[in-house]
Design brief:
- With about 130 residues, the chain is an all-alpha fold.
- Helix content is about 90%, strand content about 0%.
- α2 packs antiparallel against α3.
- The protein is rod-shaped, with a radius of gyration of 35 Å.
């Protein structure tokens, strides 16, 4: 007899425990869903901001304009002016973090121009 009454008590307790557990899960589920909704909104907002900033950075900025002007001076043979313009373009490119390849190009161009000017100056002294 004791076994029968004991099992009856367990059977009546288990649905109550399940009911309270389900209520606990449903309230937490609502809070969790709200958290995921905010998280999704936040991720969409961050993605949109990153896309807009990359588009704005890719348009011709001041370092790119200075680089193009310096290339024109270099092609026309005005090496000293090209060096000055390349150096100002390099200073401006250091301020913008998206122009790492432009920085490398400018540094390479400056090395070549300095070598060319030294070569020209050495030719003048030997003649």
């Amino acid at each position: 007899m004791k076994d029968v009454t004991l099992t009856c008590r367990c059977v009546t307790i288990i649905p109550v425990v399940r009911l309270t557990f389900n209520i606990f899960i449903s309230t937490n589920k609502r809070q969790l869903m709200t958290l995921f909704q905010y998280f999704t909104f936040f991720m969409v907002a961050v993605t949109i901001i990153l896309i807009i900033s990359s588009v704005l950075a890719k348009k011709k900025s001041l370092p790119v304009k200075l680089f193009i002007e310096a290339q024109k001076n270099e092609n026309n043979g005005y090496f000293e002016e090209a060096i000055i313009t390349y150096e100002s373009a390099l200073d401006e490119a250091k301020k913008v973090r998206f122009h790492s390849s432009l920085k490398n190009k400018i540094a390479g161009k400056l090395k070549v121009l300095h070598t060319t000017i030294e070569y020209r100056n050495n030719l003048r002294f030997t003649r």
